[in-house]
Structures are given as C-alpha cells and as structure tokens.
User: What shape does this take?
Amino acid sequence: MATEQLTAKRPAPALTGSVLNIALRLAALALIDAVTIWFVGELLGQEEYILTGFVTVITLGLNAIFLIDGLYPYRWFSPGLALLVLVVIYPTVFTIYIAFTNYRDGNLLTRAQAEQVLLSRTYLPPDAPTYRWTAFRSEDGSRYALWLVPEGEGEPLFAEEGKVTPLSALNLGEYALDEDNVPTTLPGWVRLKKAETFKLLDSVLSKTQFGNPQRVIMLNPKNPVKQAGEFQPQYTLQADGSLLDNETGVLYQPIDGTYTPVDGPYKDAEGRVTDADGNPLPVIRPGYYVTIGLGNFKRLLTNEKIREPFVRVFIWTFAHAFFTVFLTFWLGLGLALLLNVPFTPGRAVLRTALLVPYAIPAFISVLVWRGLLNEQLGVINKTLINVFGLEHGPRWTSSPTWVKIAILLIQLWLGFPYMMLITTGALQAIPSDIYEAAKVDGAGAFQRFRFLTLPLLLVSVGPLLIASFAFNFNNFTIVELFNKGGPPISPDNPAGHSDILITYTYELAFGSGRGADYGFAATISIVIFVIVAIITYFNFRFTQGWEEVSENV
Assistant: This one.
C-alpha cells in the first residue's frame, strides 16, 4: 500500500500527457532552437565565441530539461537558471577573460572588423583627377548622385553609388547643358538647389562614396563645397597581415593587436619610423583585441607610473573602509547608549530625528554636502572664515588630505544612524541581571562596558561591522559624487588622491578624457574580488569566534 502511495506521488514524466501538450512543447522547443541557431550564427560572425558557448549550453540544457524524464523537476526553475547563467556567470567569465586581453580604446574590434574599417579608408593622391560637382537626387528620393565637370581635361561624368557614366554614354538628347556644362534636368533625377545641397552636405553627400570600387569618387574633405576627386585606398593588406600605407609608403605590422609602424622611407638614428620632418609616426587606429596573458597583471606590478598610484589608492581604500566603520560605529554606539538610558528625555523623538540621514538617499545627501563644503561659496568655509578670521577655509576638494577628511565626514553623517539602530537592538537584547551581578562584584561603569557590554555587543554586531567594511570597501557613490576621486595624483594618470579601487577602476574603464582601458580595469576588478573574498572568509571565521565567546560568557 505504501509503495502504491509513493508511486502515485512521483512527478509525471516529461513526455507524458495529451498529444496536444506534447506537440505544443516540441513546437516551443523547435522555435527556441531555430532562434538560437540564427543567433549563434550571428555571434560567430562577430567572433563572440564566449557568448556563443553560453547560449549553446543554455539551449541544450532547456532541451534536456523538457525532453528527459529524469530532469522533469528542473522545468519549474529553468528560466531562473538560464537568467543566472546569462546575467551572473557569463559577465563574470567575460570579465576574467577581458583581464587577459588588451581590450581598450582603439582595440575594441575583432581583427576582421579592424581590417574592414582600415581598408575602407581612402586618400586623394596629388595627381588624382578632380572635379567641380553638382548634386542630383533620384525622383523617389532614395539615392543621390554627382554631376562631375573635370577641372582639367576630360569629359563630364555622372557618378552614382556603384556606377560612373561618362557624358558620351548618357544619350541626353534634348536635355541641354547650361553655361557650367551641367544639365538642368536628367531622366529620373532632380537637380538639387544650392540651399538643399548645403543642407545635405555634411549629413549625406560628404559621407557617401560614389562610383565603383575601381573608381571611388568622394568630396574633397579640404574643399567639399567646390571639389570632388577620385580617391584611392589608403591601405593595402599584405600576405603576412601587415598594412601598407599607399600614401606614405609606411608598413604597419600588427603587434599585440595594434598596427605599429615598422618600416618606411624615413627613419631616425634609433631606427624608429618617422615622417619627412623626423617626427616619430604614431600607431594607426583602430586595432583589435587579442589575449596577452598576464600582461595586465605584470603592468600593474612593474609599471612605476601605474604601481605607485595603485598602491596609494589601495592603501586609501583600506583606510577609507576602516575609518568609516570605526567612526560610524563609535558615534552610533555612543548615541545608542545615551538613548538607552531610561531617564534620557525625549528618547523617541531623538531617535526619530537621528534617523533622518539614513532615510534620505545617499546621492542627495552627498550633493548637499558637496555644496556645504564648497571652498569658495560653502556655508562651512564662510562660517570658519568669519568666526576665526582665516584667510581661507579648508581646501575640501583641492587638498589631498582635506578631501579625505571631507569624505570621512560625509560617511560619518550617512552611516551613524545605521550603527545606532543595530547597536540599540543589541543593547536591549543584553540581560540586565548580569549588570546587577557585576555591580555586586564591585565593577565600575567602565569595567561593565569593557568586559560585559562590548564583548556581548560584538557577538551580534561583529559580522555586521565586517559586512559594513566590505560594503564601504566598494562604496562608489560617495567618492564619485563628491569629488570624482580628485584631486588627481598626476595629469597623465587617471588615479586621484581620494579614489578608492572601485572608482579608480571606473575611471580606467569609462572616465571621460582620462583613458578607457577595459582590460586593465577588469584586472583590478579581479584584485577587488580576491580582497572581498578574503574579507568574507574572515567574516565567517570572526563570526564563529564571537559565537564561541558568547558560549563561554
């Protein structure tokens, strides 16, 4: 009987049910597989191999879950598993991969994409034919063309996108040319007026290649209003993957994904390729991203211009997190002790008032403090100058020391209500009879706090303090909104004196005008992850230690 009941409670196999249900299930899987095959093809064309692997694994997993009887229970949370893989695991794996590449500004494309961009560039040779041009638009408005009158010898041309036709092959018949040798009308085309031509000059005409691959005709960037010319490809791809600059004769070799000049008609005494004036030639962009192994990690450890700012940022990150937790904890604990005393008047009102900083969103509070601490117009500096007769107030944003003090002050304002809340709850959970016993034994107020209150308090709030340390270790909002990590350590380095590791990483990856080195930023992200993992490990060890203390008290 029991066996029959257990058998009745087993989940139905995946492929049981009505024929209609099975058909709908298979049709849904077929649709998912078809979309995946198309999407994987697109990803392979873009050389996105990591994402291709993840999409393939997810799709195979969905097929297995809905087709194999033994995997039936996974059907109900398969969407969550798929999102977990795409939203959490894939970004993590991709970040780790990027840390071992040169992925940065100028090296964001694949090799095929970079070659396509560079091989599409053109230049106008000095002896190339040039023309005076007049714009035409097709009657349906979908295409544009140029009527070209040679500035030297030759007959006029009509250049469309993909086609060039000389005047002798047009058979204009009754369509006569005006005094500028331009037809007033053409079959199927409308001659543009000057006003419309100028309107389309920057948006369409100057960006369009007319003619065909053998005869590329474009507006001359140096004089687009009056002149067009027959352009030639700027670069020619060599058999070994290098690019020859047809204009200068310089050969560019891809070194770690960056096209670097290696040979040319001019070189200096050190063998570097230069222009005719002796100036070293830069690399050409875009390049492409490649794996460089431990190059970013070696760069972090061996490059003095990077290592020195990184060490400063690293030390300040620890100091920022430690002092933030230290100051907010002791201020919050002091207020909690004060408000925990029964004879303190208006305790409920005071507690409510002290929670205001915690209730206001941090990004608003930081901006308010930024105004209060303004060096010229801030209320705090004006008050200090007027009261103490100072020449100027503290350099809250321009001094490396004062900006750190300002950040800690803002952190104290934002963090003490949280500490007051958790310590208030912990204090109220401590039995009062142990204090009575301590008084009988002759313990003073400080001894009771030192040997009873603090150890028992840390049993409850100790793990929260370590969690707060880990949170403030990566507290991006305060540092970025207050002064964007400034003042800068040096003009040529994205690190600032008040930057912490997360803001430094952000500046490397996304900072405007100060560099966008995604591979190096991913490297620092891995370092941050290792540090936070170590903090988490000690969090567990610390928690168990305090639990043992509480058991012995």
